[in-house]
Every structure is written in structure tokens, then in C-alpha cells.
Amino acid sequence: MLQHAFIGDWAQQPHVSAEHRSSMHGLNRRFLDLAGKGVLAPGLGARVAPLSSSQRAAAADCPYVLFDLRFQDDAHWRSRLQAAGPMRVADAPNADEDTVDFVRLALFYTWHLASSAGLTAQLLLGMRANTADAFRRVSVDALSALAATEAPNLTPRWSQCHAYWSALINAAGRTDPAALRRVQLSGLQLAAAVQLPSEPRQV
Prior knowledge:
2 strands; disordered N terminus; single chain
């Protein structure tokens, strides 16, 4: 039922505001640009790098985020958000500046989504309900200090699902809107599946 409700007519996305959609697509595009520099998953970077600006924009135009920050890990985020506060420079792991900047934006967007009603954060980010609640309770000024420590956790969403990423990049590279739409619909199925009570199927 959840899967059917979420997929529906995804192009209209009545449950997501225009502001959320614009921010999400912008973050997806920035994530693909970052991936194309090879600072994330090397295999993905090699495939994203040849895409043109318009092809990356098309690939990024998904009704869900294309990145992950351990959003399925309740214990990780409960610990991190409870301890959120000023961080010393020495505490920060090594991460390039572009990645830290992206993660900072992603965390602010995550907080904003989690502050919304309903299942928005869970469906668009792949976040567990308890994690969304934890984000909802933290003050927005505590998020910036988390960016450097969370930057090493930035990965492609469904990073083990090579078939999805291959299909998405191939469809974008061929400038095939119909094929790209089909891939993006399959991403909606992946996003909905992890919210189902039963054990997610292997893909």
C-alpha cells in the first residue's frame, strides 16, 4: 500500500512542495558534480564524469535524493545528534572542502524535511522514522558542526545496486527521456521498499 501510494503519479508529487523539489534537484545535481570529480565512489565518478551539464541535470531530476548519509542507521544519528555542538578543528576528519560544503547543505535540507509533517523525510531521504524525529528535535544551529564529521559517510544512495546506477547514467547519457523516466520510477520502488515492514528484497 505504501509503495503504491508513493509511486502513484510521481511527476506531480502533490505531497512535496515546489521548494522541496527545487532544493532536492539542486542537491542531486551538486552530488553528481561531486561524484564526477572522483572524490566519492571511484567507479561512479568515472561514469558520471563524461556526462554533460544538461545530462547531469536530467539525471538529477529525481523525486528523491541520490545521496545517502547513513540515514538508515538510527543508532548513528541518535548518538550524533545528542552530542551535536561546537567541534574543535582537531576533531574533524580529513575531507575535501567541496564534500564538507555539500554535506552541510544536505544536513540543513534534511532538518528542513524532517521538520515537515508526514513521511516526507522517510520517503525522499530513505530515513527511518526515529532518525527523522531526532532531526526534528535538534536546533538548526547545531547542524553546521556535524558537516565535517559526517562528510566521510557521504555515499551514493543504493550504492550496492549497480543496475540502478548503470541504467540511470546510461539513460541520461543517451538523452532518452522515456528510458530515464523508467529508471527514476524504479528508484521510487527502491525508496518505497525500504519503508515496508517486511525485509527488503535484494536488488
